[in-house]
TrEMBL record:
Record bears the keyword Ribonucleoprotein: no
Keyword Signal: yes
GO CC terms of this entry: membrane
Keywords of the record: Glycoprotein, Membrane, Signal
Native source organism of the sequence: Paramormyrops kingsleyae
Name of the molecule in the record: Ig-like domain-containing protein
Compartments where found: Membrane
InterPro entries: CD2/SLAM_rcpt, Ig-like_dom_sf, Ig-like_fold
Length: 210
């Protein structure tokens, strides 16, 4: 029997090391797909993709089509390209995390992947606390794993990895601030907050801007 090669369009990836081996993390959007691309140094006569210790996809010379198992065995979820060794995995599920490896031409696995399915980030809002000359802006929204925050002044990024931004009155009426939420599969921005809205001359207040 043959192992199912899981194909997936790579949206984002990083490298990690586990048990002395390099593992590529592949991020995909829930409902979307990713493609796993193993290291191939010679023509492929056989290939087995495993999910953990269990076969997922398999092909060898003489077969017209790959065999699919376990995570690849439900409907048309996986596509294995036996010429490149690439495995596409489709219809990613919420909170899904898959550990996969590729064994090529009977050799021990050299390519290891962790597929992580993520929801798109939500659109953030900006809460402001101001006096006549200064404001503290706080970016608020639904936090998820791998969410990052940054701030733009007009269209230029001015701060990263912080939910809070301190600004001072500059009398530049065209200046605006935007909070940005992002993760490896999506980006969302708050509505811009204009300086003219931050310093209208009122006393200290705490307002939520959507």
């Amino acid at each position: 029997m043959k192992t199912c090669l899981i194909c997936a369009n790579i949206l984002y990836n990083v490298f990690a090391t586990h048990a002395g081996r390099e593992v590529k993390e592949i991020f995909g959007k829930v409902g979307g797909e990713v493609t796993l691309k193993p290291t191939v140094n010679q023509p492929i006569s056989s290939i087995t993709w495993k999910s953990g210790l269990t076969k997922a996809a398999e092909w060898e010379t003489g077969q017209s089509e790959p065999d699919y198992y376990t995570i690849c065995n439900s409907g048309s979820r996986c596509q294995l390209d036996h010429t490149t060794g690439e495995l596409k995995i489709m219809h990613l599920k919420p909170n899904e995390k898959l550990d996969l490896s590729a064994e090529i031409n009977g050799m021990a696995a050299q390519s290891f992947f962790t597929v992580i399915a993520l929801e798109p980030v939500s659109k953030p809002s900006v809460r402001k606390t101001c006096n006549d000359t200064q404001c503290t802006l706080v970016c608020e929204g639904k936090y998820t794993t791998y969410t990052k925050y940054s701030w733009k002044e007009n269209n230029k990024t001015i701060a990263e990895d912080t939910t809070t931004l301190h600004v001072e009155k500059s009398n530049k009426l065209d200046k605006s601030y935007t909070c940005v939420f992002s993760n490896p599969v999506s980006t969302a921005e708050s509505d811009p907050v204009k300086e003219v809205e931050l310093f209208p001359g009122q006393s200290l207040r705490n307002t939520l801007i959507f």
